[in-house]
Design brief:
231 residues, alpha/beta, Ribosomal Protein L25, Chain P
């Protein structure tokens, strides 16, 4: 079932505008075909109502119940030298249930803040499109980038480190909030790991091999989002 993002609501009518109108028309949706529309953190099953002033108006058939993760996940991720990899990082973080993503400026990562800022709108759009595919009513929030010294921990702090201790999910199942730090290609420097440890992060290693940044985001996000399955 196709999904769209509404820009406004009037009574029982949701309004698709801008890019969403183009996406709607590309799908060649039939007049009585049902689809999902997200608005204000909720999901609705809808049908076409009418086209008006360049917008698509759809009528709500019913509100849908969307299952949410039982824990809150925050991601601190170093911007890779190849900044294009951030596109996949954002998709995987959004699809696996991270609530926030804060880009990190690190010694082995991408440093140009002007370019990072220019990428912001693209990243927001990537997250919106990913949310429609994933069926997620409230997209991942992209926070301002910071240096490693400025990071903060919410809940249990975990730093992915190839020299860390192999992770046991059973040791984590009693926590309901996590802050996960993931370094760039080559990992965090020794000094950066030291700073994170001093801030309360526990070094963790995923087995059996060393993952790419985007792979690590997908794996740890999926694992932590499903800790409730252990109980």
């Amino acid at each position: 079932m196709y999904s769209f993002l509404a820009s406004n609501r009037i009574g029982n009518i949701l309004i698709l505008s801008g890019r969403e109108v183009k996406h709607y028309k590309v799908r060649r949706i039939q007049r009585k075909e049902e689809f999902i529309v997200f608005y204000n953190g909720k999901a609705y099953k809808c049908q076409f109502y009418k086209e008006e002033k360049g917008n698509i108006l759809v009528k709500i058939l019913k509100e849908l119940k969307i299952e949410e993760s039982t824990c809150t996940l925050h991601l601190l991720v170093a911007i890779p030298v190849d900044i294009r990899v951030m596109d996949d990082i954002l998709r995987f973080a959004n699809e696996t249930g991270f609530s926030t993503l804060r880009p990190l400026i690190t010694s082995r990562g991408f440093h140009n803040r002007n370019i990072i800022e220019r990428k912001r709108e693209r990243w927001v759009n990537i997250v919106k499109e990913s949310s429609k595919q994933a069926g997620r009513p409230v997209p991942l929030e992209i926070l301002d980038p910071v240096d490693i010294q400025a990071v903060e921990v919410k809940g249990k702090g975990i730093v992915m480190d190839s020299h860390g201790t192999p992770m046991s999910l059973k040791d984590l199942k009693d926590f309901d909030e996590f802050t996960v730090a993931i370094g760039p290609e080559g990992g965090f420097s020794e000094e950066e790991i030291k700073i994170l440890k001093e801030k309360g992060f526990t070094p963790i290693k995923l087995k059996p091999y060393i993952f790419r940044v985007e792979t690590a985001v997908a794996v740890i996000g999926g694992l932590l989002s499903n800790l409730s399955l252990l109980s």
